[in-house]
Design a protein that fits this description.
The chain has helices at residues 2-13, 16-45, 50-61, 63-77, 80-103, 109-131, 133-137, 143-171, 174-194, 213-222, 225-240, 243-246, 248-255, 260-282, 291-310, 317-342, 348-377, 379-401. The chain is mostly helical. Helix 4 (63-77) runs antiparallel to helix 17 and helix 16 (317-342) runs antiparallel to helix 17. Mean pLDDT is 82; it is low at 200-209.
Length: 410
């Protein structure tokens, strides 16, 4: 059976639409992760505090709390090609501006934070359209496989991007990372305009936009405990465990007194673990109930965070981050597969928006709160507290979620 699943994955990659989408997205994410390594290190080199590093992550993720539901409505009602191309083009201007500022020696921490806010706004409005593409270009029975492959390319980029960043940071500095990030948008925008179908869902031309559409789908989804359990699992993971990556540069620089190359290795290890998790999910029967996988992985992430907080050896940090990446990927991707497979087709865009809200919004809020707690407790104790709370919360959520019956799909 496992061979069949891998054969199905290869067959899906060989299709024109999904295959091109996969590789264009891989290149785009490589650029994103190259910048993700350079940006917090740049802030620290500019003298920014742990609070500013957390604020930068908050600025990038906070707009999802206000705009992702609108992005979900756009995903359900607008041309997703146009939505993605427009907002990704605006987003591409941010690393270009950082390159110019670095060349002129005019970059300041507040400018980096403001540009992160711009990226956050464009992401919030376009990511539901992006995330709902896979279910739109594959058959329903292939959704789990398609999402697992999408997670595979994303986590492969977590390995390649930091590796490229490590080389560039050691050679020409952060400016090279931002340049790579800017160029990486181009193939994805081209694919969005060329490969993606013009009309993914029927337009509701007879209906005028109504603000109630922002919340009607939310109410429908919130009234389904099965879907609510998946969203709570993702939100708890993002809120409490997500800040591990945000504050990893502080852990590496201030606790272990290492340089950017060691930080790149740590982030790359997280990507290796996440890639292993994605490959593992390809071998899981698409018909299998994903709740157990999501709950076990999410609980494990909390435990791993505790171990990271008390670990005294820099050589062990990449191993722990690899385990954290595996747990994160299995937990979140399993929950996402469940949400997209069980959500009504008319609400798929808004369901994806809620998933993004839980994942990205949770990380942004968690980064801000953790940044404050680090100022009082220190990075180790703050992460330790997060890990203990996450472990207990996931055990409680999982206990209720696993008791529910699987609802019939619409």
């Amino acid at each position: 059976m496992k061979t069949d699943f891998f054969s199905q994955s290869i067959a899906l990659l060989r299709t024109r639409r999904f295959g091109t989408f996969f590789f264009a997205t891989l290149l785009s994410n490589i650029g994103t992760w190259t910048q993700q390594v350079a940006q917090p290190w740049l802030l620290l080199s500019l003298g920014a505090s742990s609070f500013v590093v957390g604020l930068d992550a908050f600025a990038m993720g906070a707009p999802v709390w206000l705009l992702t539901l609108l992005g979900g409505v756009l995903a359900d009602r607008a041309d997703r090609r146009f939505v993605i191309a427009l907002f990704q083009s605006i987003q591409m201007l941010c690393p270009i501006l950082l390159v110019v500022l670095l060349l002129t020696d005019a970059v300041e921490p507040w400018i980096v934070v403001v540009l992160s806010l711009v990226v956050g706004i464009t992401d919030a409005l376009s990511m539901p359209s992006f995330q709902s593409i896979v279910p739109s270009i594959v058959e329903r029975k292939q959704i789990a496989t398609g999402l697992a492959l999408n997670a595979t390319q994303f986590n492969l980029s977590r390995i390649i991007g930091p590796a490229i960043a490590g080389v560039l940071m050691a050679g020409i500095g952060a400016i090279g990372c931002f340049a790579v990030s800017a160029f990486s948008y181009v193939p994805f925008i081209v694919v969005a305009l060329w490969i993606l179908p013009r009309k993914i869902v029927a337009r509701q031309a007879a209906e005028d936009f109504d603000r109630r559409h922002l919340f009607a789908g939310v109410r429908d989804i919130a009234h389904q405990p099965y879907l609510r359990g998946a969203l709570l699992t993702v939100l708890t993971t993002s809120l409490l465990c997500g800040p591990l990556i945000t504050f990893c540069p502080i852990l590496v620089k201030e606790i272990f007194h290492e340089d950017a190359s060691q930080f790149s290795l740590a982030i790359g290890s997280f990507g290796v673990g996440a890639l292993i998790g994605a490959i593992f999910l390809l071998s899981v029967d698409p018909a299998r109930d994903r709740r157990h996988l999501s709950t076990i992985a999410a609980s494990s992430y909390g435990l791993i965070l505790v171990l990271v907080a008390v670990n005294p050896w820099i050589t062990v940090l990449p191993v722990l981050l690899g385990c954290a990446g595996l747990a994160m990927c299995v937990g979140n991707t399993s929950a996402n597969s469940l949400l997209q497979a069980m959500a009504p087709a008319r609400l798929r865009g808004q369901t994806v928006a809620l998933f993004m809200l839980a994942m990205r919004g949770g990380v942004s809020l968690g980064s801000l709160i953790t940044g404050v707690s680090i100022s009082f407790l220190g990075v180790r104790d703050a992460l330790l507290l997060n890990g203990v709370i996450a472990l207990l919360a996931h055990l409680a959520i999982g206990r209720q979620w696993l008791r529910l019956k699987v609802p019939a799909m619409e």
